[in-house]
Amino acid sequence: MHFDFSVCSERSGSNLIAKMMNAHSEICGPFPSHVFRAFATQYYRYGDLNDDHDWKVFLEDVVFYMARKFAEWKTTLTVEEVQSKVDHRSLAAVARVFYEAEARAHGKSRLWVKENHAYSIADYLISHFPESRFVAMVRDPRDMAATWKKLAKGGVARAARQWQTDQRGTIDLHARLRDIGRSLLVTFEDLVLRSEPTLQEICPFIGVRYEPGMLAFYDSPIVVENAEKMMSWEDLKRPLRPEEVGKYRTELGEPEVRFIESVCRDEMLVLGYEPDFPSGAAPEELEPLLPPAAETDREYTDVEKAAYARFHEAGERIRSRELY
Predict the structure, then answer these.
(1) Closest C-alpha among 2, 1, 3, 6 to residue 174
(2) Which of 30, 174, 184, 311 is 20 to 30 A from 305 via CA?
(3) C-alpha–C-alpha distance, residues 168 and 164, integer Å
(4) What is the total count of domains within the chain?
(5) Which domain holds residue 111?
(6) Interval 167-194: pLDDT, tens
(7) Structure pTM?
């Protein structure tokens, strides 16, 4: 099957665009597994997959990991099932088996993969999925931080620094791939406020026709099922909300906006986001003026805590593998 990848920051609409693509009759855009990033960054721990012992350990860990991802998929696979379907011994081949099984379960023939920090493993993805296209989506860091402040931990300071890191990687990857027609840059703002023309740009870029039903992404039962489990996904079970654009103006205080713009100014200007304030104090001067993150960090629900515990258990299993 054909694979395409999204390149997005956290809290920047990456799940929204995935669900829109998932509403296309040909495309399966499942909730993220992050299996590529989890294993590509630790691949060296598994030695030579041509060795039967190393191969067995690797397969067992991938199956263990996929059983503990945040979201529910229609499909689950055993080690034996994966081994019977894989065509060669590699992470890409194993991941293909999982994703293609999920696509078939939904009657789809293409994959849209959301992978946080995809720019960090882009060389691996490009090598193993030479047919793929990359759609980079960016969001105003002030709105991203306003969302992060409500849903994640670390407050706007952590959000701003994460956005800057992600945009540096995204901008670099897009610059390298756009000249050969393999990267398209879109904005969260356009996706929400100019949904149809933006999707009409994305669809032919990846080789499909636009379908109006993509705007009804929230009608999928599996989308609703997953959105009800994680607070960070709850907007996916309702239509687009234009008020998400520019919401920082009412949800962040001036010290927070000034700090974000100080950290992210260069990347904001490259991406066309105009700062509200002139350049001035450095981030380290502004950070003491921010509300303590502990005052805004929310408590995760019991369902979320259990999901994070399973996910961290799987990640720790990978990282604890002795080097071969």
Answers:
(1) 6
(2) 30
(3) 6
(4) 1
(5) 2-140+177-240+302-319
(6) 999 999 999 999 999 999 999 999 999 9
(7) 0.94
